## 1
Amino acid sequence: MIRIAAVGDVHVDKDVVGRYRPALEELPDQADALLIAGDLTRHGTVEEAECFATEFGGLAVPVVVVLGNHDHQSDQQEGLTKVLTDAGITVLEGDATVLELNGHRLGIAGTKGFGGGFNGACASNFGEREMKDFVGTSERYAAALRAALRSVEECDALVALTHYAPVPETLAGEPPEIFAFLGCYQLGQAIDEAPTTLALHGHAHHGSERGRTPGGVPVRNVAHPVIKQAYNVYQLLTDTVDTRDTALANA
Amino acid sequence: MTKQIDLEADIQRLLAEHDRIAEQGVTVHQRENVLILGGEVESAQRRDEICRQIAARYPDLEIACDIGITRTQAPAEVEEIS
Ligand SMILES: [Fe+2]
Ligand SMILES: [Fe+2]
């Protein structure tokens, strides 16, 4: 059994430091890892990244994140990523990591993702340069997720971590007119083309918690205003035997 | 007076693009002369700043602020994924 804690859209700045900490101190009793689905900061500045690292760094469980659109606002993704990495946080963008937890291998593939829309209401890679750039960006991020998911060789569970949504179901509650800015179906396709166990995303603050990809992969919107608590906990591999001994787990 | 539909767009852009706000998760409804703000943000300072900025931009409108602060307690339940 593996338990993963997840949240997105924490939008940390000075005024948030300390708010999550009491719940985070309980994390080791609740979960084996913490995944954060982007919008870590308000404006994507290095100073805000330092606040995020203060709040979400130095935990007793591994922390794996992707960036969100807010984390791109100041064009400082590199500096921001360095601050997080220096704090021991794993930042994924078009790549994957494998965590050894309780004798199980948990693969996590991540990307920010992008908008573009869903079946029946999506943008096409056609026409003006600006439109092709927009849809080309959706496709580039989806291809990055596809490659990241496929790069995980051996694992017992595989999680797709994005900021933008891979399905429209978890956007229910948002105005349908803006769905195309909240996610794209290409992310869902990438998730379905791999043996994905669970897909986590954020970004849709007024969306809903649960959905599934067309291929049947469970999707959870973990945006903080949606889950209304410090993090949610998901249990994977329920019927498996754990190896608590780290030496055995790594054998 | 700004048309109602443009007013909401104008406020949404103010909230997203204003340097000290950067919020995309606030809802705006107008009922007669009252502007009702909803949604949740991460701190009381942010909620207050939103109300301050909107009041400064639209001094003729009365503002009802129903914006909440998202709770940060640890969860009591685990969801099994299958
Ligand atoms: Fe967000
Ligand atoms: Fe976002």
## 2
Amino acid sequence: MSTAAIEVKNLWKKFRIYYDRALTLKERLLFWGRQRYEDFWALKNINLTVPHGVTVGLVGRNGSGKSTLLKIISRILYPTKGEVRVNGRMSTLLELGAGFHPDFTGRENIFLNASILGLTRREIKERLDEIIAFAELGDFIDNPVRNYSSGMYMRLGFAVAVHVDPDILLIDEVLAVGDLAFQEKCLRRIRELQQRGKTIVLVTHAPKQVEDLCDMAVWLDKGEIRMQGEAREVARAYADWLAAQPS
Amino acid sequence: MKELYLYREMLRNLVAKELRARYKGSVLGFFWTFLNPLLMLVVYSLVFSFVMRAQMQNYAMFLFVGLLPWNYLANSLIQGTASLVHNASLVKKIYFPREVLPLSVVLANLVNYLLSLLILIPALLIFKVHLTAALAAFPLVLLVQTLLVIPLTLLVSVATVYFRDLEHIMGILTMAWFFLTPVIYPSEIIPPELKPLFNLNPAAPIIEAYQAVFFYGRWPDWASLGWLALGGSFFLVLGFRLFDRFQRRVAEEI
Ligand SMILES: Nc1ncnc2c1ncn2[C@@H]1O[C@H](COP(=O)(O)OP(=O)(O)OP(=O)(O)O)[C@@H](O)[C@H]1O
Ligand SMILES: [Mg+2]
């Protein structure tokens, strides 16, 4: 394919930071024209092209705009200016198990959650066994998820999300969940997806993970791209800069 | 629209969840879907045949025929206000066409209404209301009503994100609308000079059409249904457009 998997052009994102949020009709009418909020630019002029089959690491300090960028690419948020183009089926892992219904069993939640991620009934049925096997929940799969531990909850969430079989996978700091064995398994799954030519964008705080997993990296700082390029270079520069910060 | 089709399984699951969750934990469970209209029927027929002695013949049936589709409309609106704000965690974390949430509310209430017909029809027979071929117009009346319910529910759901108290006001608004609509009274009692004003209410001709079809055994007023269908189609397109425009900032405002 000649077109890129993800193309971000001159992207800006503005949030309103409310001091004192007027949410009710009465307040809105009373404070008409003097809504107390301040504009905050969370992303400033972001340009980014991700070719097909490439894994990109996104690094930066807390609040630098990584999650915001991921949410705009995945269409959860809408850009203030600029444009984003995505070619291919996309799946986002922002928070595992969002959309689970506590009273439903693990199995029922697989159907619910996978359908929220856009799978049809047939696709879900085809993948059901694989998802259950991946989650390794044993007999708990037929228990209501409100009885799950938080680790089990996330296992199930991860299992569903990676079996959507997207062309493009956006991952926000969810690789750090579960016990060590499960983390290993998640990483193996990511490598397997890479080998099958999937495009991956990965938010992480660990420069080491960028070096190990990614081809390219982007370093965000206060909503701007500070550096982008080959993964190892960016990861090292970022690690050096981090080490030099007074903490 | 094409995207909505891709998410049909989500819509189906949410409707099932809605129908199941409503009575979850109650002893009788899903049977409440039938028991609710049945109890309503019993109470109304007792009150109006023994306590209030309505002037109208078979008043309880008249009321029942109009009240069930009214509930479809009113419950869609009331639950619609909560459909986005109460699913904030979903809206903020996962991409899906947000129309799915209010639409699932409409569909669940539509299914509930259709199920309540299983009580209505036998009740009409028992109370010796004459059922005629006019029943054939029922699907059309339901379609026209749905053309209005969908965009209204879409709009209240997204408006509630920006004006939270809509969720609490909606109950009162629908109650006011209820009294302006000929559900508990026949439209004949409206003074003729007020009739044009009264006809501005799109719910009036719809409820009257239900009463014609089920209660009076007459064909509905085709002219007003036709106009409503036309207006409803425009409103439907407009509703989806406006929803799309206003849902853009939903994930950050919610
Ligand atoms: N809905 C919102 N309304 C207002 N401001 C927001 C909103 N979402 C994010 N922000 C602000 O935008 C900035 C970037 O947030 P973002 O979540 O993208 O950071 P991040 O790089 O993911 O940080 P972290 O490493 O902590 O996850 C932050 O300053 C945050 O306060
Ligand atoms: Mg983040």
## 3
Amino acid sequence: MKTKRLIMVAVGGQGNLLASKILGEAALLSDVPVRMSEIHGMAQRGGVVESAIVLGAAQSPIISDGSADILLGFEPSETLRAINKCNSNTYVITNLAPLPPFTVTIGKGKYPDINLIQKLIKEKVKNLIAFDALDAAKQAGNPMALNIVLLGALSRADILPIPKKNYKTAIKSRVKENFIDINLKAFELGFNAI
Amino acid sequence: MHPLLQENPDKKILVLGNEAIARGAIEAGVSFATTYPGTPSSEISENLFKISHQTDLYFEYSVNEKVALEVAAGAANSGLKTLCIMKHVGLNVAADPLMTLAYVGVSGSLVIITADDPFMFSSQNEQDNRFYGKLSGLPVIEPSSVQEAKDMLIYAFELSEKLKEPVIFRTTTRINHSSAFITLGGIKERKTKGNFKKDPLRYVTVPAVSRNLHLKLLKKIEEAEIISENCEYNFQKGKGELGIITSGVSFLYASDAVEELNIADKVKTLKIGFSNPLPQKKIQDFLKGCKKALIIEEGEPVLETYVKACAQQAGITIPINGKGKNLFNLHFELDPETVKEVISSYFGFDYAPKSKPDASNIPELPMRPPNLCSGCSHRATFYEMKKAAQSLDIDVIYPTDIGCYTLGFMPPLNMGDFLICMGSSVSSSCGFSKAIPGKKVVGYIGDSTFFHSGITGLINAVFNNHNFTLVILDNGTTAMTGHQPNPGVNMKELGLEQYQQVSIENIVKAVGVKHVAVIKPKKVKKSIEAIKEALSYKGVSVIIAQELCVLYAKALKMPKGRPFYVADKCKDHRDCINEVACPSFYIDETNKVKINADTCIGCALCAQICSENAILPVPKS
Ligand code: SF4
Ligand code: SF4
């Protein structure tokens, strides 16, 4: 298959490491080679976590600026910040529920208008899917399932050669027993959100 | 059972590079491992620590890297298969034993992992530790991928056993923190009982012995060179008259570039996995068939310099380049596109880089710097220090050290003025306070860092009669790298009985510090008073601020305090936000200060500083 490069950006605690493990597992089930790398700037202390997931023939585990085929953003301002990873053909899928950084919450910085964020992303890339994934996660029964909602949306966008059922199998193998139902529901809600 | 212990040869599992390395150690039959934690190496030891509780593997968190390597030297010279793990700057600390251990060698085997950090994702510099191979004369092995990280570690042990020398295993963050599927291999049996045959003329490095040992080492280097010539990890791929020589993760970027530029019939690649000593003949043979060569490596021109020397010796005059203008940088890391662009421009292939989005109309986005956790006691201590200094009306220089508390250098705390390496807070305080007479100096150091290399500086301070205050931020764990144990940790809390706890207070008193105060930073008034006394003391004074790290307390399942809220009495002067800046604060839609009850851990710092007494515990419902 042609190499597909996916960048995931999230704020520490949003569960993107689990999401990338599930995606990796689903890729294996689909016989798609996968390599990933992650950089967390002290994630536990509120920093940004960026994972690169490379599916297909390429061997490099990282993704250069301008090279992402897909950008999966867990937080809208972080999605916009990561726009340098995109090119005009990049597919951007982003959660729209903001998680303002501390500087903003204490009134020492300004969070950009959410419509402006959408407008800016839209003018720079061909495809944008943006929705309130936090709301869907809450509907599924746990705001922490935001990561799985986004995987659902990724599956629906149908850019990767990974069948839906393999995501679900991977979720079942990676998520704690008593959270499986909530997460499967979250996955479906994400799948149907777009 | 720990997943890295499974016996399932040929099974594929998804692992982090560091887990692959830990698995490599298990497959190789390592029976003894030592470390001092440091990103990006930490997960290797975290896994081996857990595994050691389930098997007869001996593992220890040593006090620092020098100690770790010396402990390992003892084990490896008792015939055991020994692994010693550290981050790149850790090898500076261990450089002293390293250099002479190279003379002495090992009777079993020893692999020293140095995890380098190009771009300094979590380090104070990006030094290139391949130089330590040249400096010490020891073999260097460099994996390029997660699978190789496992396989080549096993190879490194075989090499060490054959040469009877330690082997340096050099990774970079992109190996340590990448994940991929690896294929498991079989697990060799662990030999856990060593023995030592006395042989002072081999082991006791007085000058007369060392002269012989140096000659022996030089012979070993020659032997290693022959192995390197035939090593399967130094291999050629592709064909053509243009040549690339590369190592480490750069090999992957180069391979992708050659593939994607569709030039595999014009460009051949020599991949170096055994990078010291380099295979001279292999390199010369490779160059002979080339019209032009490009060396692709991160960091320093280690390969490049050597390849040029090889070419000169063989009378090869083709252009050979790596670092330079329009080529590769000496700083930061490489990435696939940069490598592709340089390959195409250097060799003259067409390539139009993908157009990056125009970012000119993107407004400045609010930054998201890491912050001390809600309720972190360091914040309280920093605040109290500031108040104490203000009330004494003194201006202070604050050398700091390596740990979560380094984050205190940011506003509004501004508690960090100087930092170069582990332990530097103490000794640089000695320097500042002598060099600037009358200036107050306060050093900050964490518990783990104090054990690592703060104690010697403190003894120096007492002996030379220096004048400063040292604050030891004792949060009962090595927090920043992921809560590893250190000698001050109460290991019983982790259910581990075989350890003894070392008291920081006793050490400080024993080295002769006359003014020592232990504070509980959550008690604001008392702490400020104690700090004021320490600041007023002439000579070396020490404050030990004791409070468990909140994340660690959470991991130990300790009850969290009742959260606080801001009552209507609040007069909105915002001292809490402006001076304490706990991340649990926020400003709500009506422009009022609020506390996020989900993240507030109830440390009560803010409540104690609010002059209106407007911050109160949430009533029990
Ligand atoms: S009590 Fe105050 S300072 Fe402590 S965690 Fe809660 S909000 Fe932060
Ligand atoms: S991990 Fe512990 S020491 Fe580090 S910032 Fe959080 S509470 Fe403080």
